[in-house]
Amino acid sequence: MDIGISEADRKKIAEGLSALLADSYALYLMTHNFHWNVTGPQFNSLHAMFMDQYTEQWNALDVIAERIRALGFPAPGTYKEFAKLGSIQEVDGVPKADEMVRLLVAAQEATARTARKLIPTVDAANDQPTMDLLTTRLDIHEKTAWMLRSLLEE
């Protein structure tokens, strides 16, 4: 494979993207779970908001996995691999609506940190497609975290 990025750099980038994929999948699953289980006075707005968020997140999973493949490496795709690679812990039980929002803020921010951590490696390798992917993901995660945080302000 000769796309102008060394194998060692492609491997480092694929490893970073694999961590991003793991966090993105955990975030997707958490958001979908909360969509199904939210209750209370904010039900309608949170139910709809969570659906928009998990749908966006679901579509992002393919983009991240396909970039890993384009770099010449297998994409992780099992819960076991995601648990090993990710930084987001599963939530036990069904939290109250405000706690769901707090947990999603933390998960959005964690996913943004995972993406941001990869930027120096991607920049050094001159990998513009991955940089575009990371920039897009950061924009979405930071904006979503802000919108969720706004729900918690009094």
From TrEMBL:
Q: Which residues form the Ferritin/DPS domain?
A: 15-153
* Gene3D superfamilies linked to this entry: 1.20.1260.10
Domain of life (superkingdom): Bacteria
One GO molecular function term of this record is: oxidoreductase activity, acting on metal ions
* Keywords linked to the UniProt accession: DNA-binding
Query: What Pfam families does this protein's entry cite?
Result: Ferritin
Looking up SUPFAM superfamilies in the UniProt record yields:
Ferritin-like
- Note the InterPro entries from the entry: DPS_DNA-bd, DPS_DNA-bd_CS, Ferritin-like, Ferritin-like_SF, Ferritin_DPS_dom
Database matches in CDD domains: DPS (cd01043)
Q: Which family does it belong to?
A: Belongs to the Dps family.
Q: What is this protein called?
A: Starvation-inducible DNA-binding protein
This chain's source organism reads Candidatus Symbiobacter mobilis CR
Gene transcribed to yield this protein: dps
